[in-house]
Design a protein that fits this description.
The protein has 153 residues and is α+β, with helices and mostly antiparallel strands. The chain has four helices and four strands; from the N terminus they run ββββαααα. Strand 3 and strand 4 form a beta hairpin.
């Protein structure tokens, strides 16, 4: 995995002190004898804080290998973008209301789609179909906003 693909890259601000276990079994893909990370702190696509450490439901923390921790970050982004898309479609009030944010979200989901389509054979945390459908929905929303030839005259 390249540094550009890791969650600490510019699309994911640095995750403060991600706890690491030296070696174990990944809770997502089941790989044994790999370095593990607990993805509990960070920011989502909209730069909102993600903190599972202080939630009571994190009684059984999951530990991920490096590729799965990257995928977990992408999963969080896909979920937050999808939630904002649902708000936008339902009532128009969303962080995706601004065209620049919508375009950035489309670009980010395109990047995630490229990631899930290459490399690993099985994506346990983020199915490629889910990413592809989100991308289609985002593009449809953008297309509906663009002026047509009829409205330009």
């Amino acid at each position: 995995m390249s540094d550009d693909d890791h969650p600490s890259h510019q699309d994911h601000p640095p995750i403060p002190a991600s706890p690491q276990v030296l070696s174990g079994i990944c809770d997502a893909c089941g790989k044994e004898g790999v370095d593990l990370y607990k993805v509990s702190l960070g920011k989502d696509f909209f730069n909102r804080t993600y903190d599972r450490l202080s939630h009571t439901e994190d009684l059984h923390p999951k530990w991920f290998c490096s590729p799965c921790s990257l995928e977990k970050g992408y999963q969080r982004d896909v979920r937050s973008i999808h939630q904002e898309l649902e708000k936008l479609v339902a009532n128009g009030s969303s962080l995706l209301s601004e065209e620049t944010t919508l375009l950035h979200a489309i670009s980010h989901v395109e990047k995630i789609e490229k990631y899930v389509k290459k490399g690993r054979k099985i994506h346990v945390l983020l199915p490629p179909r889910e990413v592809g459908l989100l991308l289609i929905e985002l593009q449809q929303v953008l297309a509906a906003r663009l002026p047509t030839e009829d409205t330009q005259h």
